[in-house]
Amino acid sequence: MLLSAALLLLWLPTSDAPKALPEDSPSASKAVAESHVSSPSRGELPDAPIAKADVSVEPASPSAAPFSSAPVKPALERPVPTPRQQKLWYTFMAVSHGAAAFDAWSTRRAISGNYGTEGDPLLRPFAHSNAIYAATQVSPAVMDYLGRRMLTSTHPTLRRFWWVPQVAGAGFSFGSGMHNYSLVQ
Questions:
Q1: Shortest CA distance to 165 belongs to which of 183, 182, 149, 177?
Q2: What is the pTM of this model?
Q3: Separation of CA 29 from chain center
Q4: What band does 49 get if pLDDT is binned at 50, 70 and 90?
Q5: b/e per residue, 115-138, with b = 16+ CB within 10 A?
Q6: Over the stretch 73-89, which tens digit does the pLDDT of each residue have?
């Protein structure tokens, strides 16, 4: 703390006041006037700024600007899906959620008729209520998100196989629903 106080005191500006001269001497009034023009104190500022360079001289490179008006390129550019890919993604989304709803309906029907039990331990608490319809929609939502991230990925292999998570999830849900439906029939 003492070191910081000493450093602050060392860097304080010193007073530029002229040495005392007799007031009646002509050199005293000239020295006071020059001291005010050459280095004004903090309280006294000149009426107008003093030009430091000739204004008529042109800069060396007139085309150089400190800031460019061109738009800034983002750090990471994600590819934009084509309209065909958008339609397919929405179609796969509808199919996968529909297959999950079919799986929930057939599971509920099989369990209520005592034809079987729920094999998924995460869905088992919801199997005896209508909450199974909402619980089965979680997996297709995750697959939709994963498919969308793959669709807009910067990695070309992931962009090529963006449809796999949605189609696989819909296939598993539809297969489970068909299995449950065959148990009841």
A1: 149
A2: 0.59
A3: 65
A4: confident
A5: eeebeeeebeebbeeeebbebbee
A6: 777 788 899 999 999 99
